[in-house]
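User: Hi! I'm working on a homework problem where we have to compare a predicted structure to a textbook description. Could you give me the structure for the chain below?
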Amino acid sequence: MKKTIILVMPHHFKIYEGFKKNLEDLDFDIKLLFTSDSEFQYDNAAQKITNFFRKLVGDKNYKNTLKNQYNDKSLRKALSSINEKVDHALVIRPDYFSKETLEILKRKTNQLVAYQWDGLDRYPKAKELINIFDRFFLFDVDDYEKYKPQYTNVFPITNFYFDFDSEIDQHKTGEDPKEIFFIGSFIENRSDDIKYLTRIFTELKLKTNINLLYFDEKTPLLHQQNGINFIEKPLTYLETLEMVKKADIVLDVADPVHNGLSFRIFETLHYSKKLITTNPLVKDYYFYSPDNILVWDKSIDKNNIKDFLSKDHIKIDDEIRKNYSFTNWIRTILKN
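Assistant: Happy to help. Predicted structure tokens:
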């Protein structure tokens, strides 16, 4: 008999499409797929006007409060159609919801699990919700060390790669120049590194596919540079995966507010791509190889990068690689 599951997660970049494909591939019956923060609209003009004036005086939380109220109302309505208990419920970013709504969800399932893929200190509301869940998983290793003495239901876990796609060897032969791919939101405190590395990639005659998603119309004017594409419409997660598959090298520039590995790092493991990353934590993982992964900092110059790119990619043992698959990830978080 199929296991049943409720999946509650953010709408961000439609990454839920990957979860859905992989869960169905593993023969789960998804009783409800609810994406938060996807269709928010003000209830009336007064809310919109109030938000405008609150932002003027420095209050940026009013709209988020309205969004969370909208998420609560929408999830409760969706849950009202579920009349029998499901086997599992997985909530990603539980801080989008109230304690009361999550308790309604808990009554609908035999096991309620959370994954906080952002830091607890960045979104402190999540800390107030930990005890509602049977198991609460943390992406940030510092969070786990900090809060494990306080909570017995807290566990660490990494991100993963989706393994519904078995087309893992995408090496191109005899093609020149090689393509390096990056996509991410424009963040001021990492923009200098991206611009510096893009200049090096251009000097090394790599084909640059460097994409920065911007939200302020001034950003492209202030930071324009050859080799960087400023985009105002994000790719979906599955569209991004296709770009990773086509590239020879992938660039990962860590957001300093996080202390863990991004999805991009695991995607390069799955698709056997070379990786240049600013995240030194990758050296602690079993799949790390200096032939495949260059951990970049300002001490590494153009010649170091050129030497790295000249080395052949080393195949990682399948048993090590599979440890970081979605299949292994979902089995880990749902096991009793």
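For your comparison, note the following. The two ends are 18 Å apart (CA to CA). The longest strand covers residues 29-36. Good luck with the assignment!
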